[in-house]
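no rush on this but wanted to send it before i forget. theres a chain ive been looking at and ive put its sequence and its fold in token form underneath. i want to understand how the tokens follow from the sequence so walk me through it. thanks a lot i owe you, the record is right below:
>
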Amino acid sequence: MLTRRLIPCLDVKAGRVVKGVNFVGLRDAGDPVEIARQYDEQGADELVFLDITASHEDRDIVYDIVRQVAEQCFMPFTVGGGIRTIDDVTKLVQAGAEKVSINTAAVVDPPIVSATAKRFGRCATVVNIDPKRVDADDFVKRTGQAPERLSEDGRVFEVHTHGGRTPTGLEAVAWAKHVVELGAGEIVLTSMDADGTKDGYDVELTRAVVEAVDVPVVASGGCGSPGHMFDVLKPMDQGGADASAALAASIFHYGEYTVAQAKAYLAERGIPVRTTEEVTA
């Protein structure tokens, strides 16, 4: 069985790491460069850096901070936010990003996914998908189309962009399949309903996307404990989602758990993870 990854996420606004609930109510969590250095020392498998207001504010991502983080860390580093063109992608790679995460631009200009994969490879091409449960009748009325899949409670997982502010009329499972066809080599799947609640990942949503695509899916949104990571990483026949990785923010940023503690918890329960020593060797 492939090892599962634990990925801290830095949501950055105005040069500071922030965290909110359901994409709003943001509060300060510290300096991104210092926090990234700490996660590198703790043995995180990767790091995700998202400039969460760049697209909404129609501005470039903060390249200087990306460069500083890349200089401080040796772990794989994914960056997203404010990407509009393939030139933006190139600048991020030049600043030190190993992967780029495309969200709003993938919806507005889908060929950017293919262009990124062609220039930098599928393994460097990540698409971040932010779904929220919405009323099915309202979705059909707005879009004129029947969704490919409904949630167990009869709602639609609708993709949102611009930091969760803009509904797109796209259903999450169908959109995930399409971006993989375009060239995405990984999907970061962030449940807007679970984000920041610390009540657990949306296992149902994650499982639906994992079943639909043949690329790694990173579960994101709602982690409040290592137990929640176990819920989303464990195999489907055990009630999990079989995600390739679990992304978390609050529990790490505010010192509730370390990456090493989370990995120890998962290893004790049979989830294959790389130890801190293996990651930093």
